[in-house]
């Protein structure tokens, strides 16, 4: 985890559910100064009421957290990945694109879907 972690929507939701495994991973990343990557598409799936999602809102403000937009370059990479794998979940594909670029493990509640998109990724199931 020296390179940090990427969180998918399930990982972000686990934060709000006070999942100790995820909170421990985040605390460790912060302590080590590792980057925490949050694809904007995953955030869109997880955020519902920022005022009530205190842990998630806190994580978004941390200096080690990178919120990655779905810009033109990533949108193209996502589309190509979906075409290659014959998958359809834009958010999952964006998580893969971000994790590959950052060379990070993915904290996910959906390892099977991500494994289909990128079998080489290190996945941390929650």
Descriptive account of the structure:
The chain is α/β, with parallel strands linked by helices and 126 residues long. The chain has one domain: 5'-nuclease (Rossmann fold), CATH 3.40.50. The chain is 55% helix and 14% strand. The protein contains seven helices and five strands, in the order E-H-H-E-H-H-E-H-H-E-H-E. Strands 3-2-1-4-5 form a five-stranded parallel beta sheet, sandwiched between helices. Helix 5 crosses helix 6 (90-102). The protein starts with a strand and ends with a strand. The mean pLDDT is 96.
What labels would you give this structure?
126 residues; alpha/beta; Rossmann fold; 5-stranded parallel sheet; 7 helices; 55% helix
* Main CATH class: Alpha Beta
* Count of all domains: 1
Write the CATH homologous superfamily.
Answer: 5'-nuclease
What is the tally of beta strands?
Answer: 5
SSE pattern: EHHEHHEHHEHE
User: How large, in whole angstroms, is the Cα Rg?
Assistant: 14 Å
Q: Level of helix content?
A: 40-55%
Distance between the termini: 16 Å
């Amino acid at each position: 985890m020296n390179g940090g972690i990427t969180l998918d929507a399930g990982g972000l939701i686990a934060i709000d559910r006070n999942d100790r495994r995820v909170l421990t991973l985040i605390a460790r990343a912060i302590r080590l100064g590792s980057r925490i990557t949050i694809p904007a598409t995953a955030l869109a799936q997880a955020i519902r009421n920022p005022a009530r999602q205190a842990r998630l809102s806190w994580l978004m403000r941390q200096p080690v957290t990178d919120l990655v937009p779905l810009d033109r370059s990533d949108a193209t990479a996502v589309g190509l990945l979906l075409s290659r794998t014959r998958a359809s979940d834009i958010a999952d594909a964006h998580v893969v694109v971000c994790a590959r670029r950052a060379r990070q493990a993915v904290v996910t509640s959906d390892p099977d879907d991500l494994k289909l998109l990128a079998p080489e990724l290190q996945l941390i199931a929650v």
